[in-house]
Amino acid sequence: MRFFLNNSFYTLSFIILFFLWIFGLYTFLGLYLLFFIVTAFLTRRISPHHQEDFLLKEGVFYAPVNGRIRSITPNVNHPKFGDDFIEVAMTISWIREAGVYLPTRSEVMDLSYKRGKTLFRYLFDLDHHSLAEYSGVFLKLKAVVSEREYGIQIIKCALGLWPQLRVIPGDRGRAQVNFGFLGLGGTVLLYLPAQYEILVKESQLTTAGQTIIAARVDETINNDKKEEL
After folding, report:
1. Kind and range of the H or E element at 62?
2. Which of 55, 74, 107, 134 is the most exposed place for a label (fewest CB within 10 A)?
3. CB 164 within 8 A of CB 170
4. Coil, strand, or helix at residue 125?
5. CA 148 to centroid of chain Cα atoms
6. 85-124, pLDDT tens digit by residue?
């Protein structure tokens, strides 16, 4: 199993545990061991089942996170991404793997951070009139195949950590590639062009890189024909 935290944390933890054992500080040893196990669990990295490029369906969007669909809202105008998007809101609980993955082969167009109000994921009182005021990250991307722009907004939860991303404008990657981590979970909003058909339902659980969120109608038909051949 892999982890999102730096390897130096685990090296230091093993050294601390060793010296606590050597000096017989078993109470502190037990407490630190519990802290270490919980931290390792919360920062575990479970990569999506890898598929080769030719097996990944082009023109579809996969789930970017392991979460639950909270709402699907059409005709949303976003202050950072533009107008007439379909918004798919997903929440990540604190016990699920919190990696963030590219939903389709994409190029990063713009990236910005905002410090503002937080959103408690379990109340989910999302205010569409002040989307740009939430703390978190705004990521504007372009799907390489369709050349259509879409957006991902990652909102910090009141009980979560700040998103950690490893991309800059100009970067490209294929679907299923991990590019970030949302420690202790939070809310992820996926903004898709209006031409796409949503293939998930509210309250549905999603698996990053495997659950298909949306597809263009013509792309779905073409893929079905290819499979029949």
Report:
1. strand 60-62
2. 55
3. no
4. coil
5. 20
6. 999 999 998 888 889 999 999 999 999 999 998 888 878 7
